[in-house]
Amino acid sequence: MGKNVLITGGTGFIGRYLTKKLLERGYTVSILTRNSRPNTDKISYYIWDVSTQNIEEAAILNADYIIHLAGENLTEKRWTNKRKAAIIDSRVKSTELIAEVLKKHNKKLEAFVSASAIGYYGAIDGEGICTEETLPANDFIGTVCQEWEKSVDLITGLGIRTVKIRTGLVLGKNEGILKKLNALFKRGLGAALGSGKQYVPWIHVHDLCMMYIEAMENNKMTGPYNATINDSTTNLIFCKALANSYGYLIWLPNVPAFVIRLYFGEMATIVLTGRRVSSDKIKKQGFRFQFRNLNSTLKICRQ
């Protein structure tokens, strides 16, 4: 039997794709979930509740690797103070719970790979290219990512190799952001947001999941790595490419920034700002992106 990979957040968009790829490579998969599910030959489900700090410890004790994807969706609800606390706690407290079980049983993993986000560099505009050495921002998004990554350092402190994957906009077939945008764009109602000049670092879900597997298997990888295509895509370029995948040119004017802020509140900064992000560090590890062209990627996502 192959080595076991425990995934938190394994029932979501990225987690489902990652599970499929791991099984194809001969791994068995365990998934921590809040709701009971029947096990299969290759997938075992375990219950946890981060809010009460309860967990079926066997999930961690049986794992050779852990890939930590769990966290409240940033864009699901408006950012009230209560919502902001839930976003941070879902990431930090879940990591702390895992670290506590690992420490309690002196469990040594082969690697712990955690999700993070390019929001580490802040929800601001800028012409410079962010690398893993770029200083973090002080806004809410930057704070979320800093606290998230700081909690992962608890695992590092246990003598376990840790990797942090700072992810950009993830594209997949009618999944994630495209699931929300397709409803408008397929009706010819697509439009750029705000100035349209804000950068949109993106990555296809296949490349992201292969990067997680590379981080897990490559013993030389530690610390943060950016998971984006650095191709200078802006919001306007992205929206034009998505409209083109449906066979038309954008004809509507940009949605004014004040309208987006009125509707989304502070959360609007996610779509109204953006920075270029370098992926050179992961490329130096020998990783090669399969999906590098935005236009062809969007067309594939619609097939």
Number of strands: 12
Helix amount = 25-40%
Second-tier CATH architecture of one domain:
3-Layer(aba) Sandwich
Per the CATH scheme, the topology name of one domain is: Rossmann fold
Radius of gyration: 19 Å
Class of secondary structure makeup: alpha/beta
Instruction: State the shape.
Output: globular
Report how far apart the termini are. Answer: 35 Å
Strand order of the largest sheet: 4-3-2-1-5-6-8-11
Content of β-strand: 15-25%
How do the SSEs run, as a string of H and E?
EHEEEHEHEEHEEHEHEHHHEHH
Low-confidence stretches: none
CATH class identity of one domain: Alpha Beta
Give the number of helices: 11
CATH superfamily of one domain: NAD(P)-binding Rossmann-like Domain
Overall pLDDT confidence: 94
**Biggest pleated sheet:** 8 strands, mixed
What do you see in this structure?
Strand 9 (169-172), helix 5 and strand 10 (202-204) form a beta-alpha-beta unit. The chain starts with a strand and ends with a helix. The chain has a domain at 4-170 and 202-227: NAD(P)-binding Rossmann-like Domain (Rossmann fold). It is an alpha/beta fold and 303 residues long. The chain is globular and about 60 Å long. The chain has helices at 13-24, 58-61, 81-104, 140-156, 176-185, 205-217, 235-245, 257-264, 269-272, 280-283, 294-302, and strands at 4-8, 28-33, 43-49, 54-55, 65-68, 111-117, 126-130, 162-167, 169-172, 202-204, 223-227, 275-277. Helix 7 crosses helix 11 (294-302). Helices cover 38% and strands 19% of the residues. The model has no long low-confidence stretch (mean pLDDT 94). It has an eight-stranded mixed β-sheet, with helices on both faces. A two-stranded parallel ribbon has the order 7-12.
